[in-house]
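User: Can you help me understand a structure? I only have the sequence.
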Amino acid sequence: MTSIVLGSQSPRRKEILGFFDLPFETATSNFDEDSVPFNKDPADYALALARGKATALKKQYPDAIILTADTVVHKSGKVYNKAKDLEEAFSFLTDLAGQWHSVFTAVYAMKGDQEHHAWEETKVLFNPLSPDEIRHYHSKIHWEDKAGGYAIQMGAGLIVSRIEGCYYNVMGLPINSVRKLLKKFDIELWDYVK
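Assistant: Let's start by predicting it. Here is the structure, written out as tokens:
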């Protein structure tokens, strides 16, 4: 089987792909995410970021299937990427508290000249949050590497009232999109369910 490289150091993406008995390795892409401007379309923006990460790894892994993803949080024309500091993370959750927002994750699969991509949108409704609850939340969860400065998994899900769409999309790797993309390379995830 062709080797698979997950172009991400995200523990969550590694965990999700690890649901399957599919051998893969992880690699860090040196792609400069700040080089991609937000063009008002969150899906296109996430796709450009995911493609940039895959392209940056292509030379290093010419014979592998490179799988990359990028997640952005979007509300009212604004994207909430990874917070630069605790103050910005606090500002993000203050904006999102009690409101609906969308999480877009784009996934890119690339091998040689073959490129395939997909994206998903999940709508998330946050509970109303007081400033003290937001501070407590950020003192307990690892927010630094997460779009929007929040996580949905485990106890961190206390901030979420409802979701519409794929839960794993919010975690950063939508399983159904990954399955569709890997099928383009003759890999069926159903064959690797643990």
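Now, to help you interpret it: The domain at 4-192 is CATH 3.90.950.10 (Maf protein). The mean pLDDT is 95. Let me know which part you'd like to focus on.
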